[in-house]
């Protein structure tokens, strides 16, 4: 099948999932066309089955903000017509499903009917979509999709609560590719991050307020007083400067490493002992799943879809949002006993196997088949 995938090409979870999905589909013989404003960060070399089409937004002085949705819908029309695309898969309701629907309408004028699958990832629902200004557009985009999926049961329930949804929403969880975590990196030297007697704790995010970066630092502050340890902070975002200042105030400058964004998460996680995810909300918790696939135990909040990934008392521990003391206590409980820590790390690896891509990919292919069969449904 020839499939066009629209996503954000950044380090965020939705872009990673969309890119990895496209790569896996191409390996199964599908022809994949990524349509976005720059090549996705997880997309390496292109091939006969993987193509990238850049959406260029011309500068025009009349517009205060350049109309990306207009440029995207036009690019989709051109790509679908030129390459004979059979299905459109958009990640995020706004702006991608909205632009996708406009492309469908333009193509209908030429008797071309393209089915559209929309995957909801979280921010488009919990933040953007819940704003009164955007709510009608999000509702419209969801209802005009041929098939709608969400990455967790929790996100599905939130969507149904917030919006007047007419479509059925199918839950297809995020996934990991086990092939990416099966190698032993000879150049992954633990000593570059910590000494032999120190435990390594990691946090990976886009450093937004919702990630509660201040809680990450506060948890680590308590842990390092009891357990010799280092904290590795991976990512960029608006809360990074505040986090660096917090570390300075707590005297943690020598114990916390800020590495910025990275394409080599597995190399960072390969020697980690514990992963912190105290988020205010998470639609799924892909960063935690990637850590688990690298055999890392999890200390997290119980927000959103995280409990669907991190199994309390098995792969790690869950706590209420903001309960820093309990999270720190649980972290010390794990790190203070090597045998117990190894058990949780092994459990985390085993739980992650439920989300391996070979288990999830057929679910998307079934959805594509369903959408293709109903491709005339929302063409009017």
Task: Describe the structure in your own words.
There is one protein chain. By secondary structure, the chain is an alpha/beta fold. It folds into two domains: 2-175 and 357-373, 3-Layer(aba) Sandwich (Rossmann fold), CATH 3.40.50; 179-355, 3-Layer(aba) Sandwich (Rossmann fold), CATH 3.40.50.2000. It contains 13 helices and 13 strands. The protein has helices at residues 13-27, 68-83, 93-108, 123-129, 135-143, 153-162, 213-226, 240-249, 265-269, 286-293, 324-335, 338-352, 357-373; strands at 2-6, 31-36, 50-54, 87-91, 116-120, 147-150, 169-171, 199-204, 229-234, 256-260, 274-277, 297-301, 316-319. A seven-stranded parallel beta sheet has the order 3-2-1-4-5-6-7, with helices on both faces. A six-stranded parallel beta sheet has the order 10-9-8-11-12-13, with helices on both faces. Helix 2 packs across helix 3, helix 7 crosses helix 11 (324-335) and helix 10 packs across helix 12 (338-352). The two termini are 24 Å apart. The model has no long low-confidence stretch (mean pLDDT 90).
Q: What features would you highlight for this structure?
A:
2 domains; six-stranded parallel beta sheet; alpha/beta; Rossmann fold; 13 helices; 380 residues; seven-stranded parallel beta sheet
Please identify the top-level CATH class of the largest domain: Alpha Beta
| Helix vs. strand class | alpha/beta
- Termini separation: 24 Å
Largest β-sheet summary: 7 strands, parallel
What general outline do the C-alpha atoms trace? elongated
Q: Helix proportion of residues, in percent?
A: 40-55%
**Roughly how many Å is the radius of gyration?**
22 Å
Give the percentage of residues in beta strands: 15-25%
Find the count of extended strands (DSSP E, 2+ residues): 13
